[in-house]
Design goal:
With about 170 residues, the chain is of the alpha+beta class. The chain has five helices and nine strands, in the order E-H-E-E-E-E-H-H-H-E-E-E-E-H. About 25% of the residues lie in helices and about 30% in strands. A five-stranded antiparallel sheet has the order 2-3-1-9-8. A four-stranded antiparallel sheet has the order 4-5-6-7, with helices on one face. Strand 6 and strand 7 form a beta hairpin.
Length: about 170
């Protein structure tokens, strides 16, 4: 199942985005993923992600999230399953991408780095995705076309809070 949560606040220079808050957002949805959890905060405290993992495809630690590109530009949290990730993966490998895991998460991450939001046109599956672009200082949020994987959000005064469950947002 997995669970994602995060905060994006361009005015967060006061460090409102902190590990304690993100941990609370993750802990309240532990039932969505008991296998591991993870936190990530951007260097300038404008964005932060938390994650609960239910390991299905790649059971190793290399599949843990949040996951970032080698250069640190893109960071992702993802809940779901991409059924055709093997085909997309082959295409990305032919373009020179080197994988560290066998996950569909990494395929989405590299696909976004390669094609931007057009990666959605290639994905077949059920998903909720959050990707932070540290160069553009932009958040990309998406969910599958039918909405099988939940993605709730709250937006006020330039701050966006999101999660797989409303309980995370309330933290």
């Amino acid at each position: 199942m997995c669970g994602i949560a995060g905060i994006v606040d361009p005015k967060s220079r006061e460090k409102k985005i902190n590990a304690g808050t993100l941990k609370k957002m993750s802990d309240v949805i532990t039932h969505r993923g008991p296998d591991s959890d993870g936190l990530w905060i951007s260097q300038n405290y404008e964005a932060g992600f938390s994650f609960r993992r239910l390991a299905i495809i790649d059971l190793s630690e290399s599949g843990n999230q949040p996951m970032s590109t080698r250069d640190g530009r893109f960071t992702i949290v993802f809940n779901g399953e991409v059924y055709n990730h093997s085909q997309i993966r082959e295409e990305l490998i032919s373009k020179g991408y080197n994988y560290r895991s066998g996950t569909d998460t990494e395929t989405i991450l590299y696909g976004f780095a390669e094609w931007g939001e057009a990666i959605l046109d290639k994905l077949l599956g059920m998903f909720a995705i959050a990707i932070w672009d540290d160069e553009k200082k932009e958040l990309f949020l998406a969910r599958d076309r039918i909405g099988i994987k939940p993605l709730y959000y709250y937006f006020q005064n330039g701050m966006l809070v999101f999660g797989s469950e409303i309980k995370s947002i309330l933290q």
